[in-house]
């Protein structure tokens, strides 16, 4: 998608003299993709500030500051939050820079939220943390092999264009819903409907008001074609949040303070600079889980990890590439195979560093919305992640509510791809609709893709269009049936 600011940038872009600028332009094909150095830098900054929350959140999900406040494995082990935070930053930095240099795409990688929650809630109830991270490494190795052998690319090419468009729209709805929830704009109800607006149908908290105000500021700037509109909006909203916290002493969200800030408070806490603790590097046990819980049970866990990682990332990259205008008519994008391989290496690196599997982040859409089109933006984001190892207090100043506003804005942009779906043919419309609606309602990109794949195979076959169904779609749909039934299957095996 091309915004007004992007058109302005392209129309007024002229390569500037200078060795460094010329080298960057040649290395990343900046002008060839209709971008500018300024847009790439801004895009990298926006992506980082939109997803910097993972440096704070990941240690809280899989780690803690004491055994009482951390997920404890079957052997009583737990992961110290400070060490998890350092490895989260380091792994995200290395993999994002590598992705930018090799795949040359504006996608950033970090510890996947679905994967880390699965590890903390389910996996470590059966195995130790080192053994769980060993399973993550095996998952990553398999994904790398799928990427190197072309299996992942073949499956990607087999996906019909209607489903690829639906994946993009679904991700747009998904990140919008994430933004609504993370900002407190949408909350759970104790009884009745599963969700509601704010608290009792009304917006009553200052942080949520900051979210709404930030969304309107960013939307207005982008609508006017202001270059750097999203980044400017993030800065303005963060300043307003800092002022609000200083004046009203809002505090963090908790059971006793339900109207506080979600996750990050817009204040500078502790020392600005701190040395990272990288003690968790290499602390994984590759095959220990197989002897602890048996080959079948461990294999089912690996299957679940691979399926989630494989299709979550594939769906995310599909949506991001289309949103960046880098996808061709069949949905493929530049350096597709390299992107799949590097993403798989992210899972290996995440497991080896005990920060959980690293995958492409849908939050990268914020940087794309700012104009990023090349891997230079990813390099910028990666360098900022590297710096966050030493400046964690600074990365936590941008509150979740401000980052959420950027996600909703980009979700709006991604939903424009709905025009690519053929709703006149029901055999295309139903699978596409299930794809795009299942993602936000089940909080999973992989679930949406699975629902769409299964529906596409069944509905098109019933409509007499079985010749239009690629054989790989049948295989993957069967795999998703197993994936959705993994709970009962695990019980049967046990």
From TrEMBL:
Q: Which UniProt key words apply to this protein?
A: Membrane, Transmembrane, Transmembrane helix, Transport
User: Molecular function terms in GO for this entry?
Assistant: purine nucleobase transmembrane transporter activity
Keyword field contains Transport: yes
Which residues, by range, are in coiled-coil regions? none
Chief localisation class: membrane
The record's listing under InterPro entries reads: Azg-like, NCS2
Localisation per UniProt entry: Endomembrane system
Instruction: Show the Pfam families listed in the entry.
Output: Xan_ur_permease
This entry carries the following GO cellular component terms, namely:
endomembrane system; plasma membrane
TM regions (residue ranges): 43-66, 78-100, 107-126, 132-151, 163-181, 201-223, 230-248, 293-311, 376-396, 433-459, 471-492
Name the domain of life.
Bacteria
Membrane topology field: Multi-pass membrane protein
Which family, according to the similarity comment? Answer: Belongs to the nucleobase:cation symporter-2 (NCS2) (TC 2.A.40) family. Azg-like subfamily.
What's the name of the protein?
A: NCS2 family permease
Naturally occurring in which organism (per UniProt): Glutamicibacter mishrai
């Amino acid at each position: 998608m091309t915004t007004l600011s992007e058109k302005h940038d392209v129309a007024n872009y002229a390569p500037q003299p200078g060795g460094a600028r010329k080298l960057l332009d040649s290395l990343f094909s900046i002008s060839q993709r209709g971008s500018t150095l300024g847009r790439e830098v801004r895009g990298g900054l926006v992506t980082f500030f939109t997803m910097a929350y993972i440096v704070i959140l990941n240690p809280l999900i899989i780690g803690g500051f004491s055994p009482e406040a951390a997920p404890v494995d079957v052997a009583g082990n737990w992961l110290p939050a400070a060490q998890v935070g350092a490895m989260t930053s380091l792994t995200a930095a290395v993999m994002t820079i590598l992705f930018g240099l090799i795949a040359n795409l504006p996608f950033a990688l970090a510890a996947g939220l679905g994967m880390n929650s699965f590890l903390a809630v389910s996996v470590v109830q059966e195995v130790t943390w080192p053994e769980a991270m060993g399973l993550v490494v095996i998952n990553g190795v398999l994904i790398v092999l799928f990427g190197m052998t072309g299996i992942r690319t073949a499956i990607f090419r087999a996906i019909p264009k209607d489903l690829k468009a639906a994946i993009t729209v679904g991700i747009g709805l998904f990140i919008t819903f994430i933004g609504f929830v993370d900002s407190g704009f949408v909350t759970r109800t104790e009884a009745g409907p599963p969700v509601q607006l704010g608290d009792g149908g009304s917006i009553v908290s200052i942080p949520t008001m900051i979210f709404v105000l930030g969304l309107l500021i960013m939307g207005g700037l982008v609508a006017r074609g202001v270059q750097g509109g999203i980044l400017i909006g993030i800065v303005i909203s963060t300043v307003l949040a800092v002022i609000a916290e200083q004046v009203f002493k809002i505090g963090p969200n908790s059971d006793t303070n339900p109207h506080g800030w979600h996750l990050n408070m817009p204040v500078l806490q502790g020392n600005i600079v701190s040395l990272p603790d990288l003690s968790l590097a290499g602390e994984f046990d590759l095959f220990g889980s197989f002897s602890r819980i048996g080959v079948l049970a461990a294999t089912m866990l690996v299957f679940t990890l691979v399926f989630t990682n494989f299709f979550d990332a594939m769906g995310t990259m599909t949506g991001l590439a289309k949103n960046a205008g880098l996808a061709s008519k069949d949905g493929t994008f530049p350096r597709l195979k390299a992107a799949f391989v590097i993403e798989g290496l992210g899972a290996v690196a995440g497991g080896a560093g005990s920060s959980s599997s690293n995958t492409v982040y849908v939050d990268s859409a914020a940087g794309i919305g700012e104009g990023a089109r090349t891997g230079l933006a990813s390099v910028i984001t990666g360098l900022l992640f590297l710096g966050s190892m030493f400046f964690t207090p600074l990365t936590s100043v941008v509150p979740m509510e401000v980052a959420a506003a950027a996600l909703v804005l980009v979700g709006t942009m991604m939903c424009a791809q709905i025009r690519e779906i053929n709703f006149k043919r029901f055999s295309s419309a139903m699978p596409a609709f299930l794809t795009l609606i299942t993602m936000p309602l089940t909080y999973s990109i992989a679930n949406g893709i699975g629902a769409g794949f299964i529906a596409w195979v069944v509905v098109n076959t019933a409509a007499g269009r079985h010749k239009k169904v690629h054989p790989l779609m049948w295989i993957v749909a069967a795999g998703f049936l197993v994936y959705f039934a993994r709970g009962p299957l695990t019980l049967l095996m046990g």
